[in-house]
Amino acid sequence: MKPENLVYMANQIGKFFQYQKKDEIVPGIASHIKKFWDPRMREAIFAYIDQGGDGLDPYVKEAILHLKEVKNPAETSFQGT
């Protein structure tokens, strides 16, 4: 899948969650992507974010970075996620 399509889809998810309470936006986006995106799509967006993540909304970018950190727990500063 083209990165532009993944960015568009991720930002659409972000638009849906933007009306949630502020502390629920990032977890909501991350949860949706984790539950409904194929692992290959997640790997592609992780690779895209490694290249800068241009075009991703800030909350979406934060959610994807969190998912990437959880995937590689040795690299995260969070405990228990």
From TrEMBL:
Pfam families with a match to the protein in the record: FdsD
Name of the protein in question: Formate dehydrogenase
Organism per entry: Methyloceanibacter methanicus
